[in-house]
User: Fold these one by one.
Assistant:
Number 1:
Amino acid sequence: MENIIDTIKGLSHQYRDEVIAWRRHLHQHPELSQQEYGTMAFVAERLREMGLEPRTGIGKTGVMAMIRGGKNPDGYCVGLRADYDALPLTEATGLPFASVNPGVMHACGHDMHTSSLLCAAKILTTIREQLNGSIMLIFEPSEEMYPGGARMMMEDGLFDEVMPNEMYSFHCLPEMDFGRIGMKKGRYMASTDELYWTVKGKGGHGATPHMSVDPILIASHIVVALQQIVSRNAAPMMPTVLSFGKFIGEGRTNIIPDEVKMEGIIRTFDPQWRLDCHEKIRKISCGIAESMGSECDLFIDYGYPPVINDDECTQQVHDNGVAFVGEEQVDWLDLRMTAEDFAFFAQKIPSCYFRVGIHIPGTPYSNLHRPDLMVDERSMELAGGFVAYNAFMALEQQIKKSR
């Protein structure tokens, strides 16, 4: 037991080149949400090579496999999850293994997540006889698209036979240097809901606006007025973000269009305030439109809940991180307004969603969802090893508690 860290680090280093090759294959062949058939087949084949029996097609394109430990194989179960869908972006990294699928890129690091979990799976199968319980490996599709692969997989029977006792997942963090691990107890990531407006007016000639009902002007008033939800309605201690990402009026220089379409997001942490935001957005939007002689249709797509990390699981990740990489390399993190459908798992199972640094020291920083995102490939050796070690120790900790 004293040498388990050395054993796992040795295995992750031994498998490093193979894991990098897996990541490069996935990076070169990205697939969008709900289209990950090639990725599913690739992951399943790697698991079979490890002697596992993966279930495929869960939630349409997801994969699950069980590692039964040599000690108490039907006992305590730890779930490990990675996501593997890509984004509709044209890659601009210049890498020799850049995407060959036009307009599709792994710009959120999901290729790194998946190859790291495959690395952890290979390590854990190698030391299977030492495991005091079982490991559930979950390779999730469609994290980037509502309703999210987590919910889809659960609705498709992911946990019908085995429900993990704890779950863990991680996300790469470009602003964090390679070698570092970070986590936060309790509230960590926000809920997210998508907003879709159609402001209906009456188009006409730009030179005779008095004969029109200008939806561009009305929609602009709505955009400005809705900012008061964050600045004047949200409690100062309640983080809230309302952002618009799309504003389309299909007119031209001298044509006022008939309608404007807008899209945006609302993100926060409190369930009741989340619903209150929806009602305020609806009342303000429709009220302004009506007062200016137009109509407003608003569709609110109720999305992911906030990610709430279990205190005990998170403390365990922290302590295991200190043991694995050293105290100076482990960070307590702040709240993030980004969102994650891992929240659906965390609602049902005590969980921790943590971070692994991927920034290549000395190079320019590029954010997630950018076409020039780069990953320090050494991070997969570290992540794969740490995910395996944390899972191993979760099983060991449970044995100690039961004594």
Note: The longest helix spans residues 378-402.
Number 2:
Amino acid sequence: MSYMEQYHKLFFAATLSLIVVSLFAWIIKWFYRPRAYKEHFNQLFPGQFYIGLLFLIQVLELPYLLDMADVKSLRYANAFSLLLAPSLMLIICRKFFFPRENFRFKGIYMFLPAFIFLIIFLLRSVGILSFSETGRNIVIYSAVAIFAWFFFLTIRMALRIGRVTTGIELLEYSDESDYTKTFANYVQWLPTSLCVISLVNYLCNDQWVKFSYDIICIAATVGFVMLTLDPWREVEYIEQKLVLDDISDAESSKSKWRMSESRYIALRDNMIELFEEKRIYLTPHLSLDMLLKELLTNRNYLCETTARSGFKSFYDIVNHYRVKYAINLIKTEPQSKMIDIAFRSGFASAASMNKAFTQQGLPTPSKHRNPS
């Protein structure tokens, strides 16, 4: 028995554990639905399908698991990690952090080379294809070239997420410990880091390195699933910070209103109708763009209308109505949990609701339930 054969059971156990953990993560991502989100889950979390898919395709490592002694199977398993994981993580980041962007089918074409080369590695590992030494090197280094492109894209995505989270205006709308901010900080460089680890694993093409890679992936999978078990989908866009700046400018120069009195009254009445009659504030994570589409106006006019109506910002008026709605729920449904009341009132979290109450100069939600 050779030295490496003595450790095949260890290598087998690591790869099998990774596959089993990934399948369990796939089940959670595709079938677990937090009660608070109910039927709106797919709309709120469009990235969940692709996250589950990333875990599900881990079963494609089975050829390596069945023939670990073959160096071709090892090369296929390492190529799988190198080519598929970065491409899918890019889709996940786009869907999770920028869900309002349309990812059309033409954008998927850029991922076709990765799938084509992975099929080549698979056919080679099962003995259907064979290459000369030169052809083998061309295939191996072509995969590295494809990876280099994805690696560049993951860096660009991480920088983009960083720019967005830096511009979040949290003081008016949510608590600094809210999920959207902390999650972005945790995973911003995760795809890039996993790409580096995948490249090292691929270039070494060693069973001990593959064993270490499997252990790292198991830990990353478990940590990621636990972190996102109760997720919130959308990081605030940096453009929304500009809205607050516009409102501040409007409040400091009230003598320079742009709208006539009649136009202001008409827009104000339409806005009040949306909030008081249609209850648009109950829309999960209501954005300024959504309100602009409903009112058929532009950002400048809406900012001026908000300021002239006595509110500090768009978020101030949203929280004003959400707080009133939450207070009514607290008093009429004393048995309901605060987290459920927060979600039903449109807040992103219980922390957001607590902060909104404080900003409105009101006691905390729990004190409304127990006035004494």
Note: The chain has two domains: 5-227, 239-369.
Number 3:
Amino acid sequence: MGRLKLHWQMLIAILSAVLVGLWAGQDSVLLGIHLYDVFDFIGTLFLNALKMIIVPLVMSSIIAGVAGLGGSDNLGRLSVKTIAFYLSTSLFSITVGLLLVNLLTPGVIDGEAAGSRLNLSAPEAVAEQLAQVDGRGAGDITAVFLRMVPPNIIKAASDGQMLGLIFFSLLFGVFMTRITREYSQTMLSFWNGVYETMMQVTLFIMKFAPLGVFGLVAKTVSATGFAAFQPLLIFFCTVALGLAIHTFITLSLMLRLAGINPLRHYRAMLPAMLTAFSTASSSGTLPVTIECVEKNAGVSNRTSAFVLPLGATINMDGTALYECVAAMFIAQAYGLELSFATQFIVVLVALLTSIGVAGIPAASLVAITVILGVIGLPLEGIGMLLVTDRILDMMRTAVNVFSDSCGAVVIARSEGEHGVLT
């Protein structure tokens, strides 16, 4: 395994995990130890290792990247390009999802609403999870912007509030260039040193990525198998098809228009996409994304250090598509026909909530409650989404990460970087 490239090691680990997970199930015992607990331990240990380095890596990369841009004109130009690209791709992904869900109507079976067949009443098994997201409403959208300015940056970092951490790092990097040169150069050397150190730690952790991926995937498969997809097969296929169209058509066209070879970029980002698929965490995958974009795609640290951490927080193409399809699916299952105006609200709210969704597994369930609350649908509809959420979460996270990488290479080309894939 050590002689194979990382993405082949991870691909073998995923396939092996599927087979072992199906064989083991959730109750298998070996030498008195539950195999499910072993899978959970291995996967959690790897995920914790990735989460451990997120805060220092994000802070050092943004601060060093912003300070390295030099003047405020460069920063302003890069910010406009980055935000414009991410908003565009998110809007494209939501549009794809909206078209597919109206075309395939997964919530309608044989011309009738599927609510009765799907048993929309929330089962006891998911009552606790639903209670955690109950009471959400449109006011939560404003909370996204309030989280940009946390009252306590240390607490925001410990709580994983990446939006506030990124905003603080941006401010720190900008004003670090405005102090006297003696101090600014010292600070820049310090943060560059932190960044380089964290990248070395990342490389060390990634040596164990195949084992971590095996544990995470085996745990999921042993708990759910494939039978969980049967009641929601059309919904699952609708989301999967939308994610595929956005990844292989929409983003591919954007790469091609920027003069970048899509096939070469897919190969360059394969380790990051496999990591995202197995961890279902775009923030947790950030170290791998940075490594792939810089080493495999040829993007400079100057660009990637700014674009990628920002994308891991505000650019959630797969999540936005999923939120839109899920809300429309629940409406169809209840027998409701949403007007064009209501569907436009779904698109708008999906775009806004996807910006503030935390880059952790299942975080989009909270965002979906906001959409349901805005259009007046009961929250119990989320209960049936939990059946397929984990696998779809893995898929949409991979799309989120790939879209971030597309933004990095496209913006790098627009900045005149010649080492980027062609």
Note: Residues 72-104 form the longest helix (33 residues).
